[in-house]
Structures are given as structure tokens and as C-alpha cells.
Write a structure and sequence with these properties.
The structure holds three protein chains of three kinds. Chain A is mainly alpha-helical. Chain A has two domains: 1-30; 34-247, MetI-like (MetI-like fold, Orthogonal Bundle). Chain A is built from ten helices and no strands. By secondary structure, chain B is α/β, with parallel strands linked by helices. Chain B has two domains: 5-77 and 155-250, 3-Layer(aba) Sandwich (Rossmann fold), CATH 3.40.50; 85-152, no CATH class. Chain B contains eight helices and ten strands. In chain B, the strands form two sheets. A six-stranded mixed beta sheet of chain B has the order 6-7-8-3-9-10, with helices on both faces. In chain B, strands 2-1-4-5 form a four-stranded antiparallel beta sheet, with helices on one face. In chain B, strand 7 (155-159), helix 6 (167-184) and strand 8 (187-192) form a beta-alpha-beta unit. In chain B, helix 7 (195-201) packs across helix 8 (232-250). By secondary structure, chain C is α/β, with parallel strands linked by helices. Chain C folds into two domains: 23-108 and 212-299, 3-Layer(aba) Sandwich (D-Maltodextrin-Binding Protein, domain 2); 112-206, Periplasmic binding protein-like II (D-Maltodextrin-Binding Protein, domain 2, 3-Layer(aba) Sandwich), CATH 3.40.190.10. Chain C contains 13 helices and ten strands. The interface between A and C is medium-sized, with 24 and 29 residues.
Chain lengths: 248, 251, 324
């Protein structure tokens, strides 16, 4: 029961917020093509759930692949950065620059490399995932104390041993911190990737519904996207708990 | 037979925003093979720096470190125990203890077996698979000491191993360490700010002055072990050393 | 004392300027474009630059939308007075219940169709069977292109319609698709500029009903509350159209002088191609062409409105006489 009770507080809060929004929209007579009422969104959600759910699965698949790629790339880059000061000075500004480039600017390049299928969406997701992972993991790799490093130095450990025996295990909590931020960004990234060109997915649904001025469908897709984000975030947290429990 | 540790005219200075600061000024110290020398001094007089130089972690600006009469080169001949318990939180107690086996490339299984025996001797039986966070301060120090012994080096450099512990735990561990050392006969360089502790444990005590660190006095302690902190000999040696320390502080 | 005087003096001057500018300005009309500013908007730019709007007492602001449905939404909400949008998009918006009405036409001809490259060996649409068509606007474009395929005797299910996002040119030129949905006055020239030979199939020649590519719409409340501004707007626009037809070369020069950032080779040729397509009288066509389009959209389930009683447009702001 405690599991259900945990969800009680946010569920109640959500209901209160939605009720407030609904009331405001009705009282202010905001037209539904400007902003849909939560009740209309809910109706659309219930009505087309199987269809939306299948689109959601596509977005989830794109996000998960992007997450895996981004996490691996981020981890590898983090290790390169701490192994060499020169590499760090050269790479870090470039890494930050990648986050400044809006997706629509690199979209054609991504399409040439990855086509219009699942991989271009995974690419846009990975692009947004890898940055928090790099930042988190670099901090984590740098977290061991001087005494811990002295200990290994006194045992004449070489650079790789220090990395393997000390820095990598020490970086795991920070890696997961970065990954948790990354997973939510990854969902957004996959959605944006679908705007480049897609047949399926919640981002695609949003664009299509917007063109048809079916805003309740746009927001139904957004609601489902939120659920996707929460689920994936929760998944990462569960993995984090397992890993940290085993590791200590 | 264990090796001796000799430090000759060690000088060390560090760059600071205000210019170079001399931390060690021609410090010479000798620990006979299988002997126990304590270095006593006020905080911040360079004792840790000397410990690191002796362990090969830092290099001196001048002077030599001799092990068994020969220049200390590489293979690490010294097992160093840093000031703060540096157990890796993600390793269990026994995994922390066998860290040196992982670095040296020795068999983990053999190291574990040896560690288990040592744990039994150290009163840590049953705690092998516990994470450091579940162990008390005293137990963590014992695990760290086990790790130091399990490094299979002749010489141990222990930097204030009991500094962070309460008086009761400290007293217990002092006696226990003394017993262990008498059995295993390592060459020990022991850093401490606690004069009484030095008198209880050492063959020789070197007193260092405040920065820049120099050896003010060296005293032999030839009392039989185990020693009692309330015995008159211990008390008088302790008093003499305290005086020496006080003089050093004023001058 | 002096400091306080200066501070208050500054405020008074500022307020005074605002009041004066409000008095000096005419009525403000915000016009939301259908896209980023481009050659299609030549008459608007001319009317602004030649101060035809200003002479009519109108202060015109041209706004760029963030998405294709913005013009209809914001006009319906009264946030903008006038918006530009394709006829089909307008009909879909009306069908969704938005209180907007078409009030004039900027380009009363269709501009769309299918574009392929000469080297592909596609001389007629029937050769697209088994191929791929790239498009950017869901869900409208697939319907149009399928109609064109059917009209050429191709079974649409044998053709892969791929959503390729906004950059359709890249998809075509890199060979990802065999043809793309395109505008005859835009992508055709992009393709030529890169050294390829375009082959264009106009949509109206392949079974797609006649549509007006860019029309003006206004919110119903804007229309109700209008005090003559809309008529003056269209009068000024018609003057611009007359001038453009008289001296097209000067019109071209004026456009690119006002917007040098648009001065690309493609844009120049696009403008020249658009000139004959502009609707000089701004009229919205005969009612039955709307009925035909309505039936087509209903058949393809883009709208639900049926029947002859739908009033799609009004031309009352287009006459030379006084409004209302």
C-alpha cells in the first residue's frame, strides 16, 4: 500500500492543478484552438489510447537507443577528458558547443547519415543525453580524495589501475546523476528528431494534430510524453538503486 | 629479516602564492630493521610530507631515502597508511584489505585467504563482507591496518592512524597494534601528535620543530613491552618530551 | 532638486512621445504571414514601402508564424487582424470551428505539385510506381499526391510516401526519395541552382481541384468590429498590385532593396515566376470552386462540413466603394 500512497500526493496535486486550469479556461472563455480544456484532452486520450500508445512505443524505442548511445559516448568522453589535460582543454568547449546547435540546423546532416528511420531520432536523443552524462561523470571521476590517490600511488599503481580501481567505481553515483538528467532530455530529443521527418511517434502526432488544429490531441500526446518521461526516469532510478546497492 | 629505513637530509619546499615555503629543512631519521620510530610534532610541521617522501609518493628537493642501505628506487618497498581512513566505500572490508593484490597482480583468492586469517587476528571475523559505512571508526582503522600489512612490504609508514578515534578506542588499538607488531616485526615509521602514544609504542622518538620541520631531539625508549601509561618511566619520558615540544614552540 | 527635475522631466518626455506617436500613427493592423517573408509577399512589401498603407491611415505590422496553424488560430482569437494562409488550411480551420472568414486572395492559383529530377528517368507520374515521394506537411500532402498518382493510373499503395520534414530538397537531391511535394515557384529553382534539371507536375493537372495558394483571412469579431480599416487595407493592396503589373522591374528592385537579406538567386527567380500568379483583383473566386474543394476535402476526411450552405468567404472589403 505504501507504493500507492506515494503516488497519492502528486496525483492529488495534479488533479488540483488540472481543475484550476479547467476552471480558468472555462471562465475566461479561452477558445479550444488556443488552449484545450483538460477534460477535452482526457476525452481524446481515452478515445484514442491504443493509437497513441503505439506511437508512444516508437518514441520510447528511439529514446532508449539514444540513451544507450549517449551514455556510452558520454562515459567514453569523460574518461578521455580526465586522462589528459590537453584533451580536456580541446574537447570541453566543443562539447558545450554541440549543445548550442539547434536540431533543425543539423537535421539535414543527420538525415544523410541516418535516414528518416529510428536512427536519426536516436541520434537527436543521444545528442542531448551525452552532455549531462559527460559533465556528471567527469566530476565523479575527479571525486576521489587526495588520500585515496596517495594510497594507490604508494602501491605504485599505474594510470589505468587508478582509473579502474578508484576513479571509475567512484564515478558511478555521479554518472547516474547525469544519466537521470539525460533521460528526460533524451525524450525531448527523440521528439524533436521526429519533427525532422517521421511517420510515427508522439512528436509526429503533435505536429500532425497541430496542423489539423486538433489541440486536444496535441496535448493528449504531450500527456503521454510526460508519462513516458516519468517511466524512463523511474527506470534509470531503479537501475541506479540496484547498482549502488551491489556496489555499496 | 626486514629492511631498515633511512632518511638523510631531506629538504622539501612547496610553492605558495607568497613564494616558496620550506616544509622540511634537512631532516634525517633512521628506523632500524624491524624497529619502531615515531615522529612527534605539532600539527602542520611537515610530518605528513615526510611520511609521503618516505613512502615514495613525493620526491624530496634534496636528501636521500635509503631502504636497507640502498637508494629507494621503484618497486615499492613501503606500505603507506594515509592519515584519513581511505577505505573505498564500494568495496567490502575484505576487498579493501586485498587492494594491494589487485595492484600487484597477485592472486585474489590467495589474498582473500590471507586476509581472512588476518581479520581473525584483528578481531574482524564476520565483518569481511560488510561495507565500510557499516563499520565503526575503530573497525575501519583495523581494516585499513590489515590492508597495510597485507601489502607484503617490509616497511610500514603509518600517518596518525588513531588520530580520529576516541580515547577508549585509541587505547585499545594502541595495545593491539603493539602486540601485532611484536609478532610480525615490520619496520615502522609512526607519525603522531600524541606524545603518550609515541612513548607507549616506540623504540625511538624523534621530536620535530614547527615549520620548517627539523628534528629537535631523538630519544631512545628502551622500556619493556607491554607498557603502561601510568608507569613512572613512561610518565617521565613523556614529560621530558612535552617540555622539548614546548621549547620548540616558543623558539 | 535638479536631479529630481531631470528624472521627472525624462518621464514626462517619454510619456509625451508615446502619446504623440499614438496620435500620429494610424490604425494598427497586424498581418500574420503564412511563412517567413518570401517572394509571394511582394504586394504587401510594395504597399508598405510605397507608403500606400500609411496613406490609407494604416500602420501595418508583418508577423511571422511559428507553425502553419498559427495564422488561423491567431486571427480567430483576434490577436492579429489579418492572416495569410492557404485555402485548404483555412477550410480545415473553419471545419474545426475557428471563427474566421476568408476576405481576399493574394495568390488565387495553386502553386503545388510533384517535383522530380530529370536524371531519374521519370517523365510521367506513372513511373513513380514502386518509388518514394517525400513530403513535409501532414496530413494534407499525402492526400494531394495520392490524388495525382491515381489520376496517372498509379496505385498509390505501391508508392511509399515518406515524411521528410522541412528539408525536402535535400531528400530529393541525395536520392533518398524519387519525388517531393514542392512549389513551382520555389523548389524548382533551388533544384536548378544546384545544377539539376527539374521536372514539375502541377497538381491541378492531375486531378487535384483548383485551390488558392495564399488567401487573406480575418477573425469574425475583427470583421464585426471593423470600422473601415479592412477595406482601406485591400484598396491599398490593389494599388500595389496595379503598380507591380505596370513596372514589374521596379517592383523587383524595391522588394530586394527593402529586404536585402532575401537577395538570393533563387529568390529573384521565384519572384519573377510569382508575378503572373498574383491575384490583381484579390477576388476569391466563384462559389462553386469552393464547393468542389469542400467535397474533395470531405471525401478525404480532412473536413466534415457538408452542404451548400457554408459561407466560406466575403468580398465586401474588396469593392472600391465605401465599406459596409
Amino acid at each position: 500500500m505504501s507504493g500507492l500512497r506515494r503516488w497519492l500526493a502528486p496525483a492529488v496535486l495534479l488533479l488540483v492543478v488540472l481543475a484550476a486550469v479547467e476552471t480558468y479556461l472555462r471562465l475566461a472563455s479561452v477558445p479550444d484552438y488556443i488552449f484545450p480544456q483538460p477534460s477535452a484532452v482526457l476525452a481524446e486520450l481515452v478515445r484514442t489510447l491504443p493509437n497513441l500508445a503505439s506511437h508512444a512505443l516508437t518514441t520510447v524505442a528511439e529514446t532508449v537507443i539514444g540513451l544507450l548511445i549517449g551514455a556510452c559516448a558520454g562515459g567514453a568522453l569523460a574518461m578521455l577528458i580526465i586522462l589528459s589535460k590537453t584533451v580536456e582543454r580541446a574537447l570541453y568547449p566543443l562539447i558545450i558547443a554541440t549543445q548550442m546547435v539547434p536540431v533543425f540546423a543539423i537535421a539535414p546532416l543527420l538525415v544523410v547519415w541516418f535516414g528518416y528511420g529510428i536512427w536519426s531520432k536516436a541520434a537527436t536523443a543521444a545528442l542531448l543525453v551525452f552532455f549531462p552524462v559527460v559533465v556528471g561523470m567527469v566530476d565523479g571521476l575527479r571525486s576521489p580524495t587526495e588520500d585515496q590517490r596517495d594510497l594507490l600511488r604508494s602501491l605504485r599503481a599505474n594510470r589505468w589501475q587508478t582509473l579502474r580501481l578508484l576513479e571509475l567505481p567512484a564515478s558511478i553515483p555521479a554518472f547516474f546523476s547525469g544519466l537521470k538528467v539525460g533521460v528526460t532530455l533524451g525524450v525531448v530529443g527523440a521528439t524533436i528528431g521526429e519533427w525532422i521527418g517521421a511517420q510515427r511517434g508522439l512528436g509526429h502526432v503533435m505536429v500532425q494534430a497541430n496542423a489539423l488544429l486538433k489541440l486536444e490531441r496535441v496535448f493528449a500526446a504531450i500527456a503521454l510524453l510526460t508519462v513516458v518521461g516519468l517511466l524512463l526516469f523511474g527506470l534509470v532510478r531503479i537501475i541506479e538503486k540496484r547498482v549502488l546497492a551491489r556496489r555499496g | 629479516m626486514r629492511s631498515s629505513l633511512t632518511l638523510t637530509s631531506i629538504c622539501k619546499s612547496f610553492p605558495t602564492p607568497r613564494g616558496r615555503m620550506a616544509v622540511l629543512d634537512s631532516v634525517s631519521l633512521n628506523v632500524g630493521a624491524g624497529g619502531w620510530t615515531s615522529l612527534v610534532g605539532p600539527s602542520g610541521c611537515g610530518k605528513t610530507t615526510l611520511a609521503k617522501i618516505a613512502s615514495g609518493i613525493l620526491s624530496a628537493d634534496a636528501g636521500r631515502v635509503l631502504i636497507g642501505g640502498e637508494d629507494a628506487a621503484h618497486p615499492a618497498a613501503v606500505a603507506y597508511m594515509p592519515q584519513h581512513d581511505t577505505l573505498f566505500p564500494w568495496r567490502s572490508a575484505i576487498e579493501n584489505a586485498i587492494l594491494s593484490a589487485d595492484v600487484d597482480g597477485r592472486s585474489r583468492a590467495e589474498a582473500r585467504t590471507e586476509a581472512r586469517h588476518l581479520f581473525a587476528r584483528f578481531g574482524l571475523s564476520g565483518f569481511e563482507d560488510q561495507r565500510p559505512s557499516t563499520l565503526s571508526g575503530g573497525m575501519r582503522q583495523r581494516v585499513a591496518l590489515a590492508r597495510t600489512f597485507l601489502a607484503h612490504r617490509d616497511i610500514l609508514v603509518l600517518d596518525e592512524p588513531f588520530g580520529a578515534l576516541d580515547a577508549l578506542t585509541r587505547a585499545g588499538l594502541q595495545r593491539w597494534l603493539s602486540d601485532v607488531w611484536m609478532e610480525l616485526e615490520h619496520t615502522v615509521l609512526f607519525i603522531t601528535h600524541d606524545v603518550e602514544e609515541a612513548v607507549l609504542l616506540s623504540d625511538r622518538i624523534a621530536v620535530s620543530s614547527p615549520l620548517p620541520g627539523r628534528i629537535r631531539t631523538e630519544t631512545r625508549v628502551e622500556l619493556p613491552r607491554p607498557r603502561s601509561r601510568v608507569s613512572p618511566e613512561v610518565t617521565s619520558i613523556r614529560a621530558a618530551l612535552m617540555e622539548s615540544l614546548a621549547e620548540g614552540a616558543i623558539s | 532638486m535638479i536631479q529630481i527635475q531631470t528624472r521627472w522631466g525624462g518621464w514626462i518626455a517619454a510619456v509625451g512621445c508615446v502619446i504623440l506617436s499614438l496620435c500620429a500613427a494610424g490604425e494598427t493592423i497586424q498581418v500574420m504571414l503564412d511563412f517567413q517573408l518570401n517572394a509571394n509577399h511582394l504586394p504587401l512589401v510594395v504597399a508598405v514601402e510605397r507608403e500606400l498603407f500609411a496613406a490609407a491611415g494604416l500602420d501595418i505590422e508583418l508577423l511571422v508564424p511559428t507553425s502553419a496553424s498559427d495564422p488561423a488560430k491567431l486571427a480567430a482569437a483576434g490577436v492579429v487582424e489579418i492572416a495569410l494562409t492557404p485555402q485548404i488550411n483555412y477550410m480545415i480551420a473553419r471545419d474545426a470551428g475557428l471563427p474566421v472568414t476568408a476576405v481576399g486572395a493574394l495568390i488565387a492559383e495553386p502553386l503545388g505539385g510533384l517535383l522530380t529530377l530529370e536524371g531519374q528517368g521519370i517523365a510521367s507520374l506513372s513511373e513513380l510506381a514502386g518509388g518514394k515521394i517525400g513530403y513535409s506537411l501532414e496530413p494534407l500532402e499525402p492526400i494531394l499526391w495520392r490524388t495525382m498518382l491515381e489520376a496517372s493510373g498509379v496505385d498509390p499503395s505501391t508508392v511509399d510516401l515518406v515524411h521528410v520534414g522541412m528539408n525536402t530538397i535535400a531528400a530529393l537531391l541525395t536520392g533518398q526519395v524519387d519525388a517531393i511535394g514542392a512549389f513551382r515557384n520555389v523548389e524548382v529553382f533551388h533544384v536548378e541552382q544546384r545544377g539539376f534539371a527539374p521536372v514539375f507536375f502541377p497538381q491541378e493537372e492531375y486531378g487535384v481541384p483548383q485551390t488558392m495558394e495564399v488567401i487573406f483571412i480575418a477573425g469574425d469579431r475583427t470583421i464585426e468590429e471593423d470600422m473601415g480599416a479592412l477595406s482601406r487595407f485591400f484598396t491599398a493592396l490593389r494599388e500595389a498590385m496595379v503598380w507591380i503589373q505596370a513596372v514589374p522591374g521596379e517592383a523587383e528592385a524595391l522588394f530586394f532593396e527593402a529586404h536585402p537579406e532575401l537577395g538570393t538567386d533563387v529568390e529573384h527567380r521565384s519572384l519573377l515566376a510569382t508575378l503572373p500568379l498574383l491575384s490583381a483583383d484579390l477576388r476569391l473566386g466563384a462559389t462553386d470552386s469552393w464547393q468542389v474543394l469542400q467535397a474533395y476535402l470531405a471525401e478525404h476526411e480532412l473536413i466534415e462540413l457538408e452542404g451548400d450552405d457554408v459561407v466560406w468567404f466575403t468580398e465586401r472589403f474588396l469593392s472600391d466603394a465605401a465599406p459596409r
